[in-house]
Design a protein that fits this description.
Elements (H helix, E strand, L loop, with lengths): L6 H23 L8 E9 L7 E8 L2 E6 L1 H4 L8 E4 L4 E4 L1 E2 L15 E2 L11 H14 L1 H7 L2 E6 L12 H5 L7 E5 L4 E4 L1 H7 L11 E5 L6 E6 H11 L4 H18 L2 E9 L1 H12 L6 E7 L4 H7 L8 E9 L34 H13 L4 E5 L2 H17 L9 E4 L5 H10 L2 E4 L2 H5 L1 H8 L1 H4 L6 H6 L5 E2 L10 H10 L17 H6 L3 H6 L17 E4 L16 E6 L2 E5 L14 H7 L14 H9 L7
Parallel strand pairs: 1-4, 6-13, 7-8, 8-9, 13-14, 14-15, 15-16, 16-17, 17-18, 18-19
Antiparallel strand pairs: 1-2, 2-3, 5-20, 9-10, 10-12, 11-12, 20-21, 21-22
Helix pairs in contact: 4-21, 6-7, 7-22, 8-9, 11-12, 12-13
């Protein structure tokens, strides 16, 4: 089907939807005898309901929608105490439903040295990185002295002028005495200075653990400072001090607030352990979540925990929804498991290098079979083609034994590098792709030039292929890998424009604005089995809204990322409101709260968990807590 259309055609289509379905909205939703607590009006309202995509007003009572449709009809529900909520030309959409992110680590970006490239930071080169850390260290000198640790987050070798990772020597130029660790934006690898390597116990005699890499200096066994995947997470467990229960709970609370500031009314912690899930449950019981938080627990850590705690109902805005499985790593970091060699990998890679798996075939097959047998939804991180081949085989085998498991709505997470035949297989197996089009913005040029090349690079995060097959998909941010910026997600899903060159990365994979909005609202609600209560503005659903500065269907696509979330409403109550006069908040760079919570590194810690980047970092921070 033709996905891409001219702006004129798109706007005319929107107008036709508006005029053709508005009356249907009132007819379909009807009216009740209730009196509204609120009536929202005065701006474009996009419902995400195909039968009535546009409305003039929405009425709310007791946190739920009681009418949607023409203003004159909805106003019949106005009572003496009804609040008239004038949008003043701003747009209303359903509250965004997080398709995949890591809300518990949402505070990480704000509490470490910001090493992101523009537009989210200022690091364009290794000297920029060094200067940023020095300035940050100077501003936080007392806290660093107290805890003897320096942390930076978000550097990206693909965006550095040098097109490589910093080395231990370049970090030693910042400090030889204080352990310094910088985390790659993917959170799948990092770099340490010599003092950090010493504390982590990494030297020329150290062997890399299975599923991990310790990079070496040329013609030497001496580490160059870069550690990947399992080796990185093991080092994190030794370097990062125990944040403790209170610190992790603070992370979760602040992460949920950050999500709300971007219009999300449901957040996801995309991989948890029994320990971190218990802490989120505590935050919930203390009233710490203003939005709903859903988590998927690691099936390779404790399956009995999942079976005992999974549920469809929220308790104090928190629930365990299913199981998480991870097969491979990061595409931009060359650790995704491909079916062919990487195009031009940057680094000391052998000829024909194609990445690697971080889970065995036995673990993958066993997990998917277990989930099917126990009627548990499983979401699986698989970036490379070989990772998807393994996942497809696992679902085929499981569904052969348990045919009803197809109705469990299994989810593919990321799927950056896919073949068309794999999408055919996923469709036949009922697997829903949760794709990551933000990669086209952040790493589009890198994929075209280095990872997969100019041809295959056009089809990363293949949303167009999914729609061509009549498949739904969801679009996510994977924060803290990227900010949970809903408008950046929307922009990338629609335009696929690379931030460096401005090239369109896969014009045939672009989708229209309404489709992209569905991928952030009603379709992720479906993947969470919550489409009856969330994801669209319909009678009886929760009054979860995001108020936008402009109607994204009525602006030039190139300006979508400039739209701001002005207000977020959860079940009829405002939980975030932006000051219209204030500029967008910049990431906080003061690390003091984080380091005070950490309390300093405490020597060697054991880390026995599996491979997911954010889970491993969370687990490492919680290393002082009891483990299974």
């Amino acid at each position: 089907m033709a996905i891409v259309m001219s702006r004129r055609a798109a706007l005319l289509g929107s107008a036709a939807i508006c005029l053709g379905s508005l009356a249907t909205a009132v007819e379909a939703f009807g009216r009740t005898a209730a009196t509204a607590d609120q009536i929202w009006h005065g701006g474009p309202i996009i419902t995400m309901n195909d039968k009535a995509m546009r409305a003039e007003a929405v009425a709310v009572a007791n946190g739920k929608i009681i009418a949607v449709g023409r203003r004159r009809d909805v106003l019949k529900l106005k009572g003496p105490h009804t609040q008239m909520m004038d949008l003043k030309g701003q747009a209303m959409v359903p509250g965004f439903v997080d398709a995949h992110g890591h809300v518990m680590m949402g505070g990480l970006q704000a509490l470490t040295a910001n090493l992101l490239a523009p537009p989210d930071g200022d690091v364009r080169s290794i000297p920029d990185l060094q200067q940023t850390i020095r300035k940050w260290a100077e501003a936080n000198a007392s806290a660093i002295k107290r805890v003897n640790l320096m942390i930076g987050f978000g550097y990206d070798d693909s965006q550095l002028k040098e097109l490589r990772h910093p080395t231990r020597d370049e970090l030693d130029a910042i400090s030889m005495d204080v352990p310094l660790i910088i985390v790659h934006q993917s959170a799948h690898l990092g770099v340490m200075n010599s003092r950090a390597l010493e504390v982590a116990g990494i030297n020329a005699d150290t062997k890399a653990p299975p599923g991990g890499v310790i990079r070496r200096r040329p013609d030497s066994q001496e580490p160059d400072g870069v550690v990947e995947e399992a080796a990185f997470y093991a080092a994190v467990g030794k370097l990062l001090p125990s944040v403790g229960a209170d610190g992790l709970k603070a992370f979760a609370r602040e992460g949920a607030k950050l999500w709300a500031s971007f219009g999300y009314t449901t957040a996801e912690e995309g991989r948890s352990t029994p320990q971190t899930a218990a802490l989120m449950k505590q935050v919930a019981s203390e009233g710490g979540f203003l939005i709903d938080v859903v988590t998927y627990a690691d099936a390779l850590v404790d399956r009995e925990f999942i079976k005992a705690n999974i549920g469809t109902a929220y308790t104090n805005r928190f629930r365990v929804a299913g199981a998480k499985l991870v097969i491979d790593g990061s595409p931009q970091g060359f650790t995704a498991w491909r079916d062919r060699p990487y195009f031009k990998p940057v680094g000391n890679y052998p000829s024909g290098y194609s990445g690697y798996a971080s889970a065995s075939a036995e673990a993958v097959m066993g997990t998917v079979q277990w989930a099917a047998e126990n009627s548990i939804q499983v979401i699986t991180h698989a970036n490379g083609e070989r990772a998807s081949d393994m996942l497809i085989s696992a679902h085929r085998a499981a569904q052969a034994r348990f045919p009803k498991s197809k109705t469990l709505r299994p989810v593919l997470i990321h799927g950056q590098f896919l073949r068309e035949d794999q999408l055919d297989s996923y469709k036949s197996l009922g697997v829903i792709p949760s794709l990551f089009p933000m990669h086209t913005f952040y790493w589009g040029d890198w994929h075209l030039n280095q990872t997969v090349g100019p041809q295959a690079g056009q089809n990363i995060s293949p949303t167009g292929w999914a729609r061509k097959r009549g498949m739904i998909f969801t679009s996510h941010h994977d924060a803290p890998v990227a900010f949970p910026d809903s408008m950046r997600v929307l922009d990338a899903t629609v335009t696929r424009r690379a931030r460096g060159s401005g090239r369109i990365v896969g014009p045939n994979q672009r989708v229209d604005v309404i489709t992209a909005l569905k991928a952030m609202t009603i379709w992720p609600a479906y993947t969470h089995f919550e489409e009856k209560t969330k994801g669209s503005l319909e009678l009886g659903k929760l009054a979860d809204f995001a108020i936008l500065s402009k109607d994204p269907t009525a602006v030039e696509p190139a300006t979508i990322a400039d739209i701001k979330v002005m207000e977020t409403i959860k079940e009829g109550k405002t939980i975030f409101r932006r000051d219209p006069a204030a500029r967008a908040a910049a990431p906080v760079s003061d690390i003091t709260p984080l380091l005070v919570a950490f309390g300093g590194h405490r020597g060697i810690q054991n880390d026995t968990c599996a491979t997911d980047a954010v889970l491993r970092m969370t687990t490492a921070m919680a290393s002082g807590m009891p483990r299974r």
